[in-house]
TrEMBL record, chain A:
One Pfam entry name: NifU_N
Species this protein is from: Natribaculum luteum
Protein known as: Fe-S cluster assembly sulfur transfer protein SufU
Record PANTHER family: IRON-SULFUR CLUSTER ASSEMBLY ENZYME NIFU HOMOLOG
Domain NIF system FeS cluster assembly NifU N-terminal stretches: 7-129
Gene for this chain: sufU
Superkingdom field: Archaea
Length: 140, 415
Protein backbone atom coordinates (compact mmCIF):
# COMPACT_ATOMS: atom_id res chain seq x y z
CA UNK A 1 0.00 0.00 0.00
CA UNK A 2 1.23 3.49 -0.75
CA UNK A 3 1.61 6.37 1.62
CA UNK A 4 -1.89 7.66 1.07
CA UNK A 5 -3.94 5.03 2.90
CA UNK A 6 -1.28 4.68 5.54
CA UNK A 7 -1.78 8.35 6.19
CA UNK A 8 -5.47 7.91 6.73
CA UNK A 9 -5.33 5.55 9.68
CA UNK A 10 -8.21 5.39 12.08
CA UNK A 11 -6.78 7.86 14.58
CA UNK A 12 -6.38 10.60 11.98
CA UNK A 13 -9.80 10.06 10.50
CA UNK A 14 -11.28 10.05 13.99
CA UNK A 15 -9.72 13.40 14.86
CA UNK A 16 -10.78 14.80 11.48
CA UNK A 17 -14.38 13.71 11.85
CA UNK A 18 -14.61 14.46 15.59
CA UNK A 19 -12.18 17.30 16.20
CA UNK A 20 -11.25 17.89 19.86
CA UNK A 21 -11.20 21.40 21.31
CA UNK A 22 -12.76 22.82 18.15
CA UNK A 23 -13.88 26.43 18.48
CA UNK A 24 -12.55 29.62 20.00
CA UNK A 25 -11.62 30.46 23.60
CA UNK A 26 -13.46 33.30 25.30
CA UNK A 27 -10.35 34.70 26.94
CA UNK A 28 -7.24 33.47 25.14
CA UNK A 29 -3.88 34.80 26.30
CA UNK A 30 -2.94 34.80 22.64
CA UNK A 31 -4.36 33.58 19.37
CA UNK A 32 -2.93 33.36 15.91
CA UNK A 33 -4.01 32.37 12.40
CA UNK A 34 -2.00 30.71 9.64
CA UNK A 35 -2.46 29.03 6.33
CA UNK A 36 -0.97 26.47 4.02
CA UNK A 37 -1.40 27.90 0.54
CA UNK A 38 -0.85 24.56 -1.14
CA UNK A 39 -4.02 22.97 0.27
CA UNK A 40 -5.82 26.16 1.20
CA UNK A 41 -5.78 24.97 4.83
CA UNK A 42 -6.45 27.62 7.44
CA UNK A 43 -5.98 27.18 11.19
CA UNK A 44 -6.58 29.47 14.14
CA UNK A 45 -5.08 28.48 17.49
CA UNK A 46 -6.31 30.05 20.75
CA UNK A 47 -4.14 29.46 23.81
CA UNK A 48 -4.74 30.48 27.42
CA UNK A 49 -1.88 30.44 29.89
CA UNK A 50 -2.10 29.83 33.64
CA UNK A 51 -1.35 32.64 36.10
CA UNK A 52 2.34 31.78 35.99
CA UNK A 53 2.36 33.07 32.42
CA UNK A 54 4.21 29.93 31.35
CA UNK A 55 1.96 26.91 31.59
CA UNK A 56 -0.56 26.24 28.85
CA UNK A 57 -3.95 25.83 30.47
CA UNK A 58 -6.42 25.70 27.65
CA UNK A 59 -6.27 25.31 23.86
CA UNK A 60 -8.82 25.60 21.09
CA UNK A 61 -8.47 25.54 17.33
CA UNK A 62 -10.69 26.43 14.41
CA UNK A 63 -10.40 26.58 10.64
CA UNK A 64 -10.80 24.20 7.78
CA UNK A 65 -8.75 22.27 5.30
CA UNK A 66 -7.57 18.77 4.53
CA UNK A 67 -7.80 15.86 6.96
CA UNK A 68 -4.09 15.91 7.75
CA UNK A 69 -4.00 19.57 8.79
CA UNK A 70 -7.23 19.41 10.79
CA UNK A 71 -6.42 16.12 12.55
CA UNK A 72 -2.97 17.44 13.37
CA UNK A 73 -4.46 20.57 14.95
CA UNK A 74 -6.95 18.51 16.93
CA UNK A 75 -4.28 16.15 18.25
CA UNK A 76 -1.94 19.01 19.06
CA UNK A 77 -4.67 20.75 21.01
CA UNK A 78 -4.99 17.73 23.29
CA UNK A 79 -1.23 17.48 23.74
CA UNK A 80 -0.49 21.07 24.65
CA UNK A 81 -2.44 21.49 27.88
CA UNK A 82 0.00 21.25 30.78
CA UNK A 83 3.05 21.97 28.65
CA UNK A 84 5.01 25.19 29.05
CA UNK A 85 5.46 27.75 26.32
CA UNK A 86 9.15 26.80 26.18
CA UNK A 87 8.19 23.19 25.58
CA UNK A 88 5.85 24.28 22.79
CA UNK A 89 8.62 26.30 21.17
CA UNK A 90 11.00 23.35 21.35
CA UNK A 91 8.70 21.10 19.32
CA UNK A 92 9.75 20.34 15.75
CA UNK A 93 8.27 18.59 12.77
CA UNK A 94 9.40 15.17 13.98
CA UNK A 95 7.37 15.63 17.15
CA UNK A 96 4.30 16.34 15.05
CA UNK A 97 4.86 13.36 12.82
CA UNK A 98 5.43 11.14 15.88
CA UNK A 99 2.20 12.47 17.31
CA UNK A 100 0.30 11.63 14.13
CA UNK A 101 1.83 8.16 14.24
CA UNK A 102 1.87 7.65 10.44
CA UNK A 103 4.22 8.25 7.57
CA UNK A 104 3.41 11.59 6.00
CA UNK A 105 4.27 11.82 2.32
CA UNK A 106 6.79 14.61 1.64
CA UNK A 107 4.30 16.85 -0.13
CA UNK A 108 1.89 16.70 2.80
CA UNK A 109 4.29 17.52 5.63
CA UNK A 110 3.30 21.19 5.27
CA UNK A 111 -0.28 20.24 6.12
CA UNK A 112 0.87 18.26 9.14
CA UNK A 113 2.99 20.98 10.71
CA UNK A 114 0.65 23.93 10.14
CA UNK A 115 -1.03 23.87 13.58
CA UNK A 116 2.29 23.57 15.37
CA UNK A 117 3.74 26.52 13.46
CA UNK A 118 0.68 28.63 14.15
CA UNK A 119 0.86 27.89 17.89
CA UNK A 120 4.59 28.60 17.98
CA UNK A 121 4.37 31.84 16.02
CA UNK A 122 1.47 32.92 18.24
CA UNK A 123 3.60 32.28 21.33
CA UNK A 124 6.56 34.18 19.93
CA UNK A 125 4.41 37.15 18.99
CA UNK A 126 2.96 37.07 22.54
CA UNK A 127 6.48 37.18 23.96
CA UNK A 128 7.40 40.01 21.65
CA UNK A 129 9.98 37.93 19.83
CA UNK A 130 8.15 38.10 16.51
CA UNK A 131 6.55 40.93 14.61
CA UNK A 132 2.81 41.21 15.29
CA UNK A 133 2.10 41.36 11.59
CA UNK A 134 3.86 38.05 10.94
CA UNK A 135 1.66 35.83 8.84
CA UNK A 136 2.22 32.16 9.33
CA UNK A 137 2.36 29.98 6.26
CA UNK A 138 3.96 26.64 5.65
CA UNK A 139 5.08 27.78 2.24
CA UNK A 140 8.65 28.49 3.31
CA UNK B 1 -17.92 2.70 -35.96
CA UNK B 2 -15.18 1.64 -33.62
CA UNK B 3 -13.68 4.14 -31.22
CA UNK B 4 -10.53 4.23 -33.29
CA UNK B 5 -12.39 5.22 -36.45
CA UNK B 6 -14.20 8.04 -34.73
CA UNK B 7 -11.03 9.69 -33.56
CA UNK B 8 -8.85 8.34 -36.35
CA UNK B 9 -6.17 7.41 -33.87
CA UNK B 10 -4.20 4.31 -33.08
CA UNK B 11 -3.87 4.92 -29.35
CA UNK B 12 -1.87 1.77 -28.68
CA UNK B 13 0.75 2.86 -31.19
CA UNK B 14 0.94 6.31 -29.66
CA UNK B 15 1.27 4.85 -26.17
CA UNK B 16 4.22 2.78 -27.34
CA UNK B 17 6.11 6.03 -27.96
CA UNK B 18 5.80 6.97 -24.28
CA UNK B 19 7.69 4.40 -22.19
CA UNK B 20 6.82 6.27 -18.99
CA UNK B 21 3.21 5.13 -19.41
CA UNK B 22 4.45 1.64 -18.45
CA UNK B 23 5.87 2.96 -15.20
CA UNK B 24 4.74 1.10 -12.10
CA UNK B 25 4.65 2.39 -8.54
CA UNK B 26 4.18 -0.19 -5.78
CA UNK B 27 3.37 -2.78 -8.42
CA UNK B 28 0.63 -0.74 -10.08
CA UNK B 29 0.83 0.88 -13.49
CA UNK B 30 0.58 4.65 -13.16
CA UNK B 31 -2.59 6.19 -14.57
CA UNK B 32 -1.37 9.65 -15.54
CA UNK B 33 -4.19 12.18 -15.62
CA UNK B 34 -2.18 15.33 -14.87
CA UNK B 35 -1.46 16.44 -18.42
CA UNK B 36 -2.53 20.03 -17.92
CA UNK B 37 0.40 20.35 -15.50
CA UNK B 38 2.83 18.71 -17.89
CA UNK B 39 2.62 16.11 -20.64
CA UNK B 40 4.89 13.11 -21.06
CA UNK B 41 7.69 13.03 -23.61
CA UNK B 42 7.70 10.62 -26.56
CA UNK B 43 10.76 8.74 -27.78
CA UNK B 44 11.37 10.92 -30.88
CA UNK B 45 11.71 14.00 -28.65
CA UNK B 46 14.04 12.28 -26.18
CA UNK B 47 16.00 10.93 -29.16
CA UNK B 48 16.34 14.33 -30.83
CA UNK B 49 17.67 15.83 -27.63
CA UNK B 50 20.16 13.06 -26.91
CA UNK B 51 21.25 13.15 -30.55
CA UNK B 52 22.03 16.83 -30.09
CA UNK B 53 24.12 16.13 -27.00
CA UNK B 54 25.79 13.12 -28.58
CA UNK B 55 26.59 14.62 -31.99
CA UNK B 56 26.50 18.41 -32.20
CA UNK B 57 26.46 20.00 -28.75
CA UNK B 58 27.98 23.48 -29.00
CA UNK B 59 27.11 27.05 -28.17
CA UNK B 60 25.13 28.96 -30.80
CA UNK B 61 25.52 32.19 -32.78
CA UNK B 62 29.13 32.84 -31.86
CA UNK B 63 31.09 29.85 -33.13
CA UNK B 64 32.64 29.56 -36.56
CA UNK B 65 33.48 25.93 -36.03
CA UNK B 66 31.41 23.17 -37.51
CA UNK B 67 29.60 21.96 -34.40
CA UNK B 68 28.56 25.47 -33.51
CA UNK B 69 27.21 25.96 -37.01
CA UNK B 70 25.12 22.81 -36.79
CA UNK B 71 23.82 23.77 -33.38
CA UNK B 72 23.05 27.34 -34.52
CA UNK B 73 21.14 26.19 -37.58
CA UNK B 74 19.13 23.70 -35.52
CA UNK B 75 18.38 26.31 -32.88
CA UNK B 76 17.35 28.96 -35.38
CA UNK B 77 15.30 26.55 -37.50
CA UNK B 78 13.34 25.47 -34.45
CA UNK B 79 11.94 29.02 -34.28
CA UNK B 80 10.64 28.81 -37.84
CA UNK B 81 9.17 25.36 -37.28
CA UNK B 82 7.29 26.36 -34.14
CA UNK B 83 6.14 29.62 -35.75
CA UNK B 84 4.71 27.66 -38.66
CA UNK B 85 2.97 25.29 -36.24
CA UNK B 86 0.92 28.14 -34.76
CA UNK B 87 0.35 29.95 -38.05
CA UNK B 88 2.86 32.79 -37.63
CA UNK B 89 3.85 33.60 -41.20
CA UNK B 90 6.77 35.78 -40.10
CA UNK B 91 8.72 32.74 -38.89
CA UNK B 92 11.51 33.46 -36.43
CA UNK B 93 10.89 37.21 -36.61
CA UNK B 94 7.65 36.61 -34.77
CA UNK B 95 8.67 33.84 -32.40
CA UNK B 96 10.84 34.26 -29.31
CA UNK B 97 11.99 31.36 -27.18
CA UNK B 98 11.56 31.92 -23.45
CA UNK B 99 11.67 29.62 -20.45
CA UNK B 100 7.90 29.04 -20.34
CA UNK B 101 4.52 30.76 -20.65
CA UNK B 102 5.16 32.63 -17.43
CA UNK B 103 8.33 34.19 -18.78
CA UNK B 104 6.56 35.10 -22.03
CA UNK B 105 3.95 37.01 -20.00
CA UNK B 106 6.68 38.73 -18.02
CA UNK B 107 8.65 39.64 -21.12
CA UNK B 108 5.77 41.69 -22.51
CA UNK B 109 4.64 43.00 -19.13
CA UNK B 110 8.12 44.33 -18.37
CA UNK B 111 9.29 45.48 -21.77
CA UNK B 112 6.01 46.88 -23.04
CA UNK B 113 3.93 47.31 -19.87
CA UNK B 114 6.40 49.13 -17.66
CA UNK B 115 7.23 51.68 -20.34
CA UNK B 116 3.83 52.14 -21.98
CA UNK B 117 1.35 51.85 -19.09
CA UNK B 118 0.60 54.79 -16.84
CA UNK B 119 -2.14 56.37 -14.72
CA UNK B 120 -5.48 56.32 -16.54
CA UNK B 121 -4.57 53.22 -18.53
CA UNK B 122 -6.38 49.95 -18.00
CA UNK B 123 -5.34 46.36 -18.27
CA UNK B 124 -8.30 44.02 -18.74
CA UNK B 125 -7.96 40.44 -17.51
CA UNK B 126 -10.54 37.74 -16.82
CA UNK B 127 -11.51 36.08 -13.56
CA UNK B 128 -10.22 32.80 -14.92
CA UNK B 129 -6.65 33.94 -15.62
CA UNK B 130 -3.81 31.74 -14.45
CA UNK B 131 -1.49 33.41 -11.94
CA UNK B 132 1.10 33.56 -14.76
CA UNK B 133 -0.91 36.35 -16.33
CA UNK B 134 -2.99 37.58 -13.37
CA UNK B 135 -0.13 38.21 -10.93
CA UNK B 136 2.19 39.54 -13.64
CA UNK B 137 -0.22 42.16 -14.97
CA UNK B 138 -1.55 42.99 -11.52
CA UNK B 139 1.95 43.79 -10.27
CA UNK B 140 3.16 45.58 -13.40
CA UNK B 141 -0.02 47.67 -13.49
CA UNK B 142 0.52 48.57 -9.84
CA UNK B 143 4.07 49.72 -10.55
CA UNK B 144 2.94 51.69 -13.59
CA UNK B 145 -0.04 53.23 -11.79
CA UNK B 146 -2.50 51.63 -14.21
CA UNK B 147 -5.83 49.99 -13.29
CA UNK B 148 -6.81 46.35 -13.68
CA UNK B 149 -10.30 45.12 -14.51
CA UNK B 150 -11.55 41.55 -14.58
CA UNK B 151 -14.12 40.22 -17.03
CA UNK B 152 -16.66 38.15 -15.10
CA UNK B 153 -17.04 34.41 -15.38
CA UNK B 154 -20.72 33.44 -15.47
CA UNK B 155 -22.45 30.54 -13.72
CA UNK B 156 -21.78 28.20 -16.63
CA UNK B 157 -18.04 28.85 -16.41
CA UNK B 158 -17.94 31.03 -19.54
CA UNK B 159 -16.83 34.61 -19.92
CA UNK B 160 -19.62 37.15 -19.70
CA UNK B 161 -19.06 38.73 -23.11
CA UNK B 162 -21.41 41.64 -22.40
CA UNK B 163 -19.27 42.43 -19.41
CA UNK B 164 -16.17 42.10 -21.59
CA UNK B 165 -17.60 44.75 -23.93
CA UNK B 166 -18.22 46.98 -20.92
CA UNK B 167 -14.75 46.45 -19.45
CA UNK B 168 -12.79 47.07 -22.63
CA UNK B 169 -12.85 50.80 -23.35
CA UNK B 170 -10.73 53.44 -25.02
CA UNK B 171 -8.69 53.57 -21.80
CA UNK B 172 -7.79 49.92 -22.21
CA UNK B 173 -4.20 49.41 -23.31
CA UNK B 174 -3.91 45.64 -22.91
CA UNK B 175 -6.35 42.73 -22.78
CA UNK B 176 -4.79 39.54 -21.47
CA UNK B 177 -6.94 36.41 -21.68
CA UNK B 178 -6.47 32.71 -21.30
CA UNK B 179 -7.37 30.76 -24.46
CA UNK B 180 -8.32 27.53 -22.66
CA UNK B 181 -8.82 27.73 -18.89
CA UNK B 182 -6.65 25.32 -16.94
CA UNK B 183 -9.29 25.10 -14.21
CA UNK B 184 -12.68 25.31 -15.91
CA UNK B 185 -11.62 23.92 -19.27
CA UNK B 186 -13.51 26.74 -20.98
CA UNK B 187 -12.40 27.56 -24.53
CA UNK B 188 -12.68 31.33 -24.70
CA UNK B 189 -13.75 33.28 -27.83
CA UNK B 190 -10.33 34.83 -28.22
CA UNK B 191 -10.74 36.13 -31.74
CA UNK B 192 -13.94 37.95 -30.75
CA UNK B 193 -12.04 39.42 -27.79
CA UNK B 194 -9.23 40.43 -30.14
CA UNK B 195 -11.73 42.33 -32.29
CA UNK B 196 -13.11 44.14 -29.27
CA UNK B 197 -9.61 45.01 -28.04
CA UNK B 198 -8.56 46.27 -31.47
CA UNK B 199 -11.72 48.36 -31.80
CA UNK B 200 -10.37 50.28 -28.81
CA UNK B 201 -6.76 50.33 -30.03
CA UNK B 202 -5.70 47.95 -27.29
CA UNK B 203 -3.35 44.99 -27.64
CA UNK B 204 -4.45 41.47 -26.85
CA UNK B 205 -2.16 38.91 -25.19
CA UNK B 206 -3.45 35.34 -25.32
CA UNK B 207 -2.25 32.71 -22.85
CA UNK B 208 -2.26 29.58 -24.98
CA UNK B 209 -0.57 27.24 -22.48
CA UNK B 210 -3.54 24.84 -22.56
CA UNK B 211 -4.61 25.57 -26.14
CA UNK B 212 -1.57 24.91 -28.33
CA UNK B 213 -1.13 21.36 -26.96
CA UNK B 214 -4.77 20.40 -27.46
CA UNK B 215 -6.15 21.95 -30.67
CA UNK B 216 -5.10 23.58 -33.93
CA UNK B 217 -4.10 27.18 -33.18
CA UNK B 218 -3.67 29.91 -35.77
CA UNK B 219 -2.43 33.12 -34.16
CA UNK B 220 -3.17 35.11 -37.32
CA UNK B 221 -6.75 33.87 -37.58
CA UNK B 222 -7.19 34.88 -33.93
CA UNK B 223 -5.46 38.18 -34.70
CA UNK B 224 -3.56 37.99 -31.41
CA UNK B 225 -0.88 40.60 -30.89
CA UNK B 226 0.94 38.28 -28.49
CA UNK B 227 0.46 34.59 -27.84
CA UNK B 228 2.30 32.44 -25.27
CA UNK B 229 2.73 28.71 -24.66
CA UNK B 230 5.05 26.17 -23.00
CA UNK B 231 7.04 23.29 -24.50
CA UNK B 232 6.50 20.92 -21.59
CA UNK B 233 2.72 20.87 -21.98
CA UNK B 234 2.91 19.80 -25.64
CA UNK B 235 5.10 16.66 -25.41
CA UNK B 236 8.22 18.84 -25.51
CA UNK B 237 10.88 19.40 -22.86
CA UNK B 238 10.79 21.66 -19.80
CA UNK B 239 12.87 24.82 -19.87
CA UNK B 240 11.51 26.22 -23.13
CA UNK B 241 8.44 28.29 -23.89
CA UNK B 242 7.37 30.57 -26.70
CA UNK B 243 6.22 34.09 -27.22
CA UNK B 244 4.59 34.93 -30.53
CA UNK B 245 4.35 38.63 -31.30
CA UNK B 246 3.37 40.48 -34.45
CA UNK B 247 6.57 41.40 -36.28
CA UNK B 248 6.08 45.16 -36.29
CA UNK B 249 5.33 45.23 -32.56
CA UNK B 250 8.30 43.09 -31.56
CA UNK B 251 10.51 45.16 -33.84
CA UNK B 252 9.81 48.34 -31.87
CA UNK B 253 9.92 46.76 -28.45
CA UNK B 254 12.84 47.23 -26.04
CA UNK B 255 14.27 44.04 -24.54
CA UNK B 256 13.96 43.52 -20.76
CA UNK B 257 16.88 41.14 -20.31
CA UNK B 258 20.33 42.23 -21.32
CA UNK B 259 23.55 40.41 -22.04
CA UNK B 260 25.53 38.73 -24.75
CA UNK B 261 24.23 37.29 -28.00
CA UNK B 262 21.50 39.92 -28.38
CA UNK B 263 23.50 42.94 -29.46
CA UNK B 264 24.52 44.55 -32.72
CA UNK B 265 27.15 46.93 -31.40
CA UNK B 266 28.45 47.64 -27.92
CA UNK B 267 30.61 50.53 -26.73
CA UNK B 268 31.42 51.57 -23.18
CA UNK B 269 28.63 54.11 -23.46
CA UNK B 270 25.80 52.31 -25.21
CA UNK B 271 24.55 49.26 -27.09
CA UNK B 272 22.26 48.55 -30.01
CA UNK B 273 20.16 45.44 -30.41
CA UNK B 274 20.23 42.60 -32.86
CA UNK B 275 17.17 41.44 -34.80
CA UNK B 276 14.06 39.79 -33.41
CA UNK B 277 14.03 37.21 -31.86
CA UNK B 278 17.68 37.36 -30.80
CA UNK B 279 17.38 40.70 -29.05
CA UNK B 280 14.95 39.03 -26.61
CA UNK B 281 17.14 35.98 -26.05
CA UNK B 282 20.35 37.14 -24.35
CA UNK B 283 22.80 34.61 -22.95
CA UNK B 284 23.13 30.97 -23.90
CA UNK B 285 19.62 29.85 -24.82
CA UNK B 286 17.94 26.45 -24.26
CA UNK B 287 19.46 24.76 -27.32
CA UNK B 288 18.74 21.10 -26.62
CA UNK B 289 15.23 22.13 -25.56
CA UNK B 290 14.70 23.96 -28.85
CA UNK B 291 15.75 20.84 -30.71
CA UNK B 292 13.34 18.85 -28.54
CA UNK B 293 10.49 21.29 -29.12
CA UNK B 294 11.04 21.06 -32.87
CA UNK B 295 10.70 17.28 -32.60
CA UNK B 296 7.61 17.67 -30.39
CA UNK B 297 5.91 19.84 -32.98
CA UNK B 298 6.78 17.32 -35.70
CA UNK B 299 5.35 14.57 -33.53
CA UNK B 300 2.06 16.39 -32.91
CA UNK B 301 1.68 17.34 -36.54
CA UNK B 302 2.23 13.73 -37.51
CA UNK B 303 -0.74 12.77 -35.38
CA UNK B 304 -2.67 15.81 -36.58
CA UNK B 305 -3.95 18.52 -34.26
CA UNK B 306 -7.56 18.02 -35.39
CA UNK B 307 -7.29 14.42 -34.22
CA UNK B 308 -5.71 15.50 -30.94
CA UNK B 309 -8.61 17.87 -30.40
CA UNK B 310 -11.20 15.20 -31.21
CA UNK B 311 -9.52 12.77 -28.83
CA UNK B 312 -9.43 15.37 -26.03
CA UNK B 313 -13.08 16.14 -26.56
CA UNK B 314 -14.10 12.49 -26.52
CA UNK B 315 -12.12 11.68 -23.37
CA UNK B 316 -13.42 14.78 -21.62
CA UNK B 317 -17.01 13.99 -22.47
CA UNK B 318 -16.53 10.45 -21.19
CA UNK B 319 -14.94 11.63 -17.93
CA UNK B 320 -17.51 14.37 -17.46
CA UNK B 321 -20.42 11.99 -17.95
CA UNK B 322 -18.98 9.38 -15.63
CA UNK B 323 -18.24 11.91 -12.90
CA UNK B 324 -21.54 13.73 -13.36
CA UNK B 325 -23.34 10.43 -12.79
CA UNK B 326 -22.02 10.39 -9.22
CA UNK B 327 -24.34 12.29 -6.84
CA UNK B 328 -21.56 13.42 -4.56
CA UNK B 329 -19.32 14.91 -7.26
CA UNK B 330 -19.44 18.59 -8.11
CA UNK B 331 -17.91 19.53 -11.48
CA UNK B 332 -16.75 23.03 -12.42
CA UNK B 333 -16.85 24.57 -15.89
CA UNK B 334 -18.99 24.23 -19.01
CA UNK B 335 -20.59 21.05 -20.33
CA UNK B 336 -18.49 18.93 -22.67
CA UNK B 337 -18.31 19.94 -26.33
CA UNK B 338 -16.28 22.19 -28.57
CA UNK B 339 -16.25 24.90 -25.91
CA UNK B 340 -14.45 22.73 -23.39
CA UNK B 341 -10.84 21.65 -23.28
CA UNK B 342 -9.48 18.33 -22.08
CA UNK B 343 -9.76 18.57 -18.33
CA UNK B 344 -12.33 18.18 -15.58
CA UNK B 345 -12.02 19.92 -12.20
CA UNK B 346 -14.25 18.58 -9.46
CA UNK B 347 -14.77 17.97 -5.76
CA UNK B 348 -16.01 14.87 -3.98
CA UNK B 349 -18.39 15.87 -1.21
CA UNK B 350 -16.91 15.52 2.26
CA UNK B 351 -13.36 14.86 1.09
CA UNK B 352 -10.81 17.62 0.73
CA UNK B 353 -9.20 17.58 -2.74
CA UNK B 354 -5.77 16.97 -1.25
CA UNK B 355 -6.96 14.00 0.76
CA UNK B 356 -8.70 12.67 -2.34
CA UNK B 357 -5.53 12.98 -4.38
CA UNK B 358 -3.49 11.18 -1.74
CA UNK B 359 -5.97 8.33 -1.74
CA UNK B 360 -6.07 8.14 -5.55
CA UNK B 361 -2.29 8.02 -5.44
CA UNK B 362 -2.61 4.67 -3.65
CA UNK B 363 -4.33 3.43 -6.77
CA UNK B 364 -1.49 4.90 -8.81
CA UNK B 365 -3.96 7.42 -10.27
CA UNK B 366 -2.15 10.73 -10.71
CA UNK B 367 -4.30 13.86 -10.68
CA UNK B 368 -3.74 17.37 -9.42
CA UNK B 369 -5.29 19.01 -6.38
CA UNK B 370 -5.11 22.60 -5.26
CA UNK B 371 -6.09 25.92 -6.71
CA UNK B 372 -4.27 25.22 -10.00
CA UNK B 373 -2.77 28.70 -9.88
CA UNK B 374 -6.23 30.25 -10.12
CA UNK B 375 -6.79 31.27 -6.51
CA UNK B 376 -9.16 34.18 -7.13
CA UNK B 377 -11.29 31.94 -9.36
CA UNK B 378 -11.47 29.32 -6.61
CA UNK B 379 -12.49 32.03 -4.15
CA UNK B 380 -15.29 32.90 -6.53
CA UNK B 381 -16.31 29.25 -6.84
CA UNK B 382 -16.37 29.21 -3.03
CA UNK B 383 -13.90 26.36 -2.64
CA UNK B 384 -10.34 26.39 -1.35
CA UNK B 385 -9.22 23.66 -3.71
CA UNK B 386 -10.40 21.27 -6.37
CA UNK B 387 -9.23 18.02 -7.86
CA UNK B 388 -8.40 18.08 -11.57
CA UNK B 389 -8.10 15.25 -14.04
CA UNK B 390 -6.59 16.28 -17.37
CA UNK B 391 -6.20 14.16 -20.47
CA UNK B 392 -3.92 13.81 -23.45
CA UNK B 393 -3.97 11.80 -26.67
CA UNK B 394 -2.44 8.75 -25.04
CA UNK B 395 -5.06 8.43 -22.30
CA UNK B 396 -7.77 5.79 -22.47
CA UNK B 397 -11.30 5.39 -21.22
CA UNK B 398 -10.06 2.55 -19.02
CA UNK B 399 -7.84 5.05 -17.20
CA UNK B 400 -10.82 7.29 -16.57
CA UNK B 401 -12.70 4.26 -15.25
CA UNK B 402 -9.80 3.67 -12.83
CA UNK B 403 -10.19 7.23 -11.55
CA UNK B 404 -13.93 6.96 -11.04
CA UNK B 405 -13.66 3.56 -9.34
CA UNK B 406 -10.95 4.78 -6.96
CA UNK B 407 -13.33 7.45 -5.66
CA UNK B 408 -15.14 4.68 -3.81
CA UNK B 409 -12.14 4.18 -1.57
CA UNK B 410 -12.18 7.81 -0.53
CA UNK B 411 -15.89 7.57 0.22
CA UNK B 412 -15.37 4.51 2.41
CA UNK B 413 -12.50 6.08 4.36
CA UNK B 414 -14.27 9.35 4.94
CA UNK B 415 -17.81 8.02 5.42
C1 LIG C 1 -3.41 28.49 -18.63
C2 LIG C 1 -2.01 28.46 -18.14
N1 LIG C 1 -1.24 29.54 -18.23
C3 LIG C 1 0.03 29.57 -17.84
C4 LIG C 1 0.61 28.45 -17.29
C5 LIG C 1 2.03 28.55 -16.85
O1 LIG C 1 2.84 27.72 -17.60
P1 LIG C 1 4.37 27.58 -17.22
O2 LIG C 1 4.38 27.07 -15.81
O3 LIG C 1 4.91 26.61 -18.18
O4 LIG C 1 4.97 28.92 -17.31
C6 LIG C 1 -0.13 27.28 -17.17
C7 LIG C 1 0.44 26.05 -16.62
O5 LIG C 1 0.46 25.76 -15.46
C8 LIG C 1 -1.47 27.28 -17.60
O6 LIG C 1 -2.24 26.20 -17.48
Amino acid sequence: MGLGSDMYRQQILDHYKNPRNYGELEDPTFSHVGENPMCGDEIRMDIRLADDGETIENVAFSGDGCAISQASASMLSTKLAGKTVDELLEMDRDDVIDMLGVDISPMRVKCAVLAEKVAQDGAEIYRGELDKEKTTTTED
Amino acid sequence: MSQQDVEGLDVERIRADFPILEREVDGKQVVYLDNAATTHTPEPVVEAMSDYYRRYNANVHRGIHHLSQEASVAYEDAHDRVAEFVGASGGREELVFTKNTTESENLIAYSWGLSELGPGDEVVLTEMEHHASLVTWQQIAKRAGADVKYVRVDDTGRLDMDHARECITDDTAMVSVVHVSNTLGTVNPVSELADIAHDHDAYIFVDGAQAVPTRPVDVEAIDADFYAFSGHKMVGPTGIGCLYGKADILEDLEPYHYGGGMIRKVTFEDSTWGDVPWKFEPGTPPIAEAVGLHAAVDYLEDIGMERVRAREEALTEYAYDRLAAEDDVEIYGPEPGPERGGLVSFNLEGVHAHDLTSILNDHAVAIRAGDHCTQPLHDKLGVAASARASFYVYNTRAEIDALVEALEDARTLFA
